[in-house]
């Protein structure tokens, strides 16, 4: 369904996006309305926020899609809106379900390629309660002179850069000052993340639109479509809220572990890449605008470049509009840098983000329709693997069944170095356990001990109810007693390595069928058929005849995952599966792993991708110096770390 989205390359031109959107909306039979912005675009073109409405105005179930809150991110949201409208034509909605699409709510920012609006306001800081005093951000005031310097280069700029570098050093890097900068501020109209001095045009217009089209609804799912935070090419599903509310439980019910909830607050933290310290989000606005409805506000956030790189691009753009000339060569360079920080000119990124987002839309719409049918089992057509993220009922551990794997009290020494000092873990069928911890804490060694790629010196390992027999060694340690049993059990434990470990002299297909043919003794045609199905699942149908050297790292890792799945493992061990990849290839692999989680595979994952671990895991183990220092469900462990060591680790990595 979403493997080849109709729009393959995003346009970054306002007029083109608008024309595409209107054409798609008309073809879909939507009711169209336009809201004229008071200012024009850079070529004098008039600017509008457009609204497409599908379904009956009195429908009680409503889905809302908002694009372009941060203008320059608009091409992604607009492409999603147009593609979804076009793809599902002709639309047939049940009487009681409607769709409201708000196209480019900050059209000025989109047309001028700015994240902010015409008043330098970050719209996602503007939806505060303007009857009260805006929040204070004293720490931003200290940083402001370093962030907003009138010189592009020269002594003043050097001093500003040095001051910023010193602030970063004192706070543990950019991650230490980002929560202050991105919290938003209401005192410096020329500053970054400025929230404004009152409701801006886009704020008022969104509220007008919701007052006109959304008042009748009682169950509402809202998507606000963003780019620029999180791992490259990974569209994360978030819900941002100042406090708990009924929509969040609904969201968890619908999307399960795929949904991360970001609870905001002055000192709140999150590993999602967005600012938990900020207020005034669109998510708050939509809830306020529909006080009687159950509203699930969602944000899709498609990761691009590192936080500091994106922030530098935003800072340069701020300088350009305050002190520079947009049409100078330097101005054009700054604009191009900003655009590529939010909309990478990378078809793979664009397709992945588009396809995954349409999957989320499908999922939400199916939920709304199911409410009306009184259907309790949620079913939605599944999208193809590499981009399918929004599945039916989210999987979870099957309690009451025999654990898929149990490991007790593992010890491992390398000569004098004691690497594991009694580590235990168990995973129920369908459970995803992630192991996190500093480099050298023993995570990989532990994983390798589970399938005896390393021989533990002590401990017990039980896979699918069968315990690996161990015998004592002369030095008082232990080793497997029966290598044939080890081989048999190993065949039930899949392993995905950091460096893929594909055979370079075999094609992708040969790599996948090799073990099923020789270890499982499957017939060739059965193995080949299964391999093709798995290649389809990981989005590599067309690569079966290629050699690993002809594939990108991300494709090789997806092929390696298909090879692991070919053995129909009881448990899959993944050892830092994305850490050897270029940043732009991480997202595609994470999406495949997330799909495996959602399909109910049992997995033990070693990873440094904290946000991802939080999303997909049912349980997280924090390892420190070869011991489990802390373990628990991700929400608890990340929000309330009990040990100082975990607190420090999270502060360093988030
Ligand atoms: N084969 C080996 N021989 C000797 N020492 C080893 C061996 N394998 C691992 N070690 C040591 O064991 C310790 C734990 O390594 P391990 O790779 O398990 O850590 P980790 O937590 O996975 O780290 P990272 O996150 O950097 O991958 C390290 O000090 C490492 O140098």
Sketch the major β-sheet: 8 strands, mixed
Any idea what the CATH superfamily of the domain at 14-130 and 198-304 and 343-387 is called? Zn peptidases
- Approximate shape: globular
Fraction in beta strands: 15-25%
Widest β-sheet, arrangement of strands: 1-2-4-3-5-8-6-7
Number of strand segments: 20
Terminal CA distance? 35 Å
Q: What do we call the CATH topology of the domain at 14-130 and 198-304 and 343-387?
A: Aminopeptidase
The average pLDDT value, as a whole number, equals: 90
CATH hierarchy: architecture of the domain at 14-130 and 198-304 and 343-387: 3-Layer(aba) Sandwich
Q: Helical amount among residues, as a percent range?
A: 25-40%
Query: In CATH, what is the class of the domain at 14-130 and 198-304 and 343-387?
Result: Alpha Beta
* Structural class estimated from helices and strands: alpha/beta
The total of helices stands at 21
Query: Over the alpha carbons, how many angstroms does the gyration radius reach?
Result: 26 Å
Low-confidence stretches: 1-7, 375-394
Small molecules in complex: adenosine-5'-triphosphate
GO cellular component, one term: plasma membrane
Keywords: ATP-binding, Nucleotide-binding, Transport
Pfam family, one: DUF2817
Family: Belongs to the ABC transporter superfamily.
